[in-house]
Amino acid sequence: MIRRASSTSLLVAAAFIAAGCGGADSGTVDVLAASSYTDVAELLEALLEEELGLDIEFSFGSSGSFLEQIRQGAPASVVITADNATMQRISDADLVDSIVSIATNELIVVVADTSAGRGIESVRDLESSGVLVVLCASSAPCGAATDALLGGLDLDVDAASREPNVRATLTKVRLGEADAAIVYRTDALASPELRAVPIAQADNVQVISQAAAVGGRDNALRVLQVLTEPAAVAILAEAGFGSP
Amino acid sequence: MAAIPALLLGVPLLALLWRLPWSNLGAALGSDAATSALVLSLITSLIATALCVVFGLPLAWALASGRGTTTRVVRALCLLPIVLPPVVGGVALLLAFGRQGIVGQWLADVGVQLPFTTAGVVLAQTFVALPFFVLSVEAALRQLDAEYSDVAIVHGASPFRAFVSVTLPSVGPAVVAGAVLAWARALGEFGATVTFAGSLEGRTQTLPLAVYDLLERDPADAVVLSAVLVVVAVAVLVGLRDRWFGIFRSDVSS
């Protein structure tokens, strides 16, 4: 029994040591990015590594969870949020500095090739019964933007689910489980198998995606610098992001 | 050395209770999101537990009395949801019972929809909880002396009658313990639920999903709801303290 207990402790201790080794001084720059950057990250990562000669590591999540993650010591040097309101909250908590706007995004309707989906021609059709719609949770930036969009249009959409982030929302339509969803334009471009129904410019809600350095981390400012240079802007434009 | 794993398990729970915003407790529990998640979780987990008992009893009995390869394969299938990451369970459920799933497309034809519904939540919970019930009851049934029910059958009872009036009462405690374990597992279900049933307040957003959502909007409220789940878990442990090991002992009828 004692033997078993001590070998368990050794295992735990080994895990702690291994975790410690992956820390800040290993030459890796960790970037915590909103889930809408999932597809474009590979190109950005390659650009940053080439320009800076550093090992860049992207990880993704809902922007809404970043404040708590950084506060609890997530090993990120740079954080990229989907909207500026979320970045403002992280900044208010004194966790970041040197905020730069790097891209804009806007909402779009994506539609699955289902019988109810084929009938959708405009965002207003999401109101009709018989259409299974999923939206982002209000706690995620895409959900906040969606609420603003639907509120502005005075639409009452009966969502089947409010998913934790924009990628989870998109996935439900890609799997054909939902007929339609409201996601970012960049997500629609990343899933060409889905039909995209644009939202009129006058009605649409634009989000400004921002990047910032997490307090006291090396190399973060150099990463931010590269993210605002023409090469990065071109990569983002190719993925469907607008320039701020 | 034994202290380290004990701390690993104990400290997070203490931290949760330590950070509990006592002054804010009533307001956090009384919010719309919290109450609808509490009610939804209670209803769905109780229905899932009932389904585990109804479908789990015959399955446990078949496993306990079976020998052969089929029994072993079915038992392995039964264990699978325990070792499977719940989110993978959710993906599997979607591929089976989703609108485009192999069973789901037939269900859709007759107008039955499971994803994004409360019934979908119950299905996900039953999927992850059933093994706990089946294994508890099967272990008790295996250790039961088959002679008693044989005597009843010799004396003219039908096998069903012998099962109901002889076997069932002696494995009663294991049935209760298995049902409580299954209920606790159903109540805590997250991965399969969010993947298969989505998250919508009042329809599919159970307590664990509400905790996840609140963590991004109002972390203090998330701590309160987490504490509710801790209290339930502790209550289950206390309630089962005599049965916990009892179900694996030979003298189950004691």
Can you describe this structure?
The complex is a heterodimer of chains A (244) and B (254). Chain A is α/β, with parallel strands linked by helices and 244 residues long. Helix content of chain A is 39%, strand content 24%. Chain A has ten helices and nine strands. In chain A, strands 1, 2, 3, 4, 5, 6, 7, 8 and 9 form a nine-stranded mixed β-sheet that branches. In chain A, α2 (41-52) crosses α9. The termini of chain A are far apart. By secondary structure, chain B is mainly alpha-helical. In chain B, α11 packs antiparallel against α12 (219-239). The relative contact order of chain B is 0.16. Residues 247-254 of chain B have low confidence and may be disordered. The chains are: A alpha/beta (244), B mainly alpha (254). Chain A binds chain B through residues 2, 5-6, 8-10, 12-13, 62, 64-65, 68, 114, 132, 134, 137-140, 159-164, 168, 172, 175-178, and chain B through 1-2, 4-5, 8, 94, 98-100, 115-116, 194, 197-201, 204-205, 212-213, 215-217, 219.
Distance between the termini of chain B: 36 Å
Instruction: Indicate the overall shape of chain B.
Output: globular
Number of DSSP helical runs of chain A? 10
Largest sheet of chain A: 9 strands, mixed
How large is the share of residues in beta strands of chain B? under 5%
Query: What is the helix fraction of residues of chain A, given as a range?
Result: 25-40%
The count of strands of chain B amounts to 0
Mean pLDDT of chain A: 85
- The ordered H/E elements of chain B are HHHHHHHHHHHHH
Q: How many H/I helices of chain B? A: 13
Structural class of chain B: mainly alpha
User: What is the residue-averaged pLDDT of chain B?
Assistant: 85
Strand content of chain A: 15-25%
* Order of helix and strand elements from N to C terminus of chain A: HEHEHEHEHEHEHEHEEHH
What level of helicity do the residues of chain B show? over 70%
What radius of gyration of chain B results from the CA coordinates? Answer: 21 Å
**Biggest interface, and residues per chain?**
A-B, 31 and 25 residues
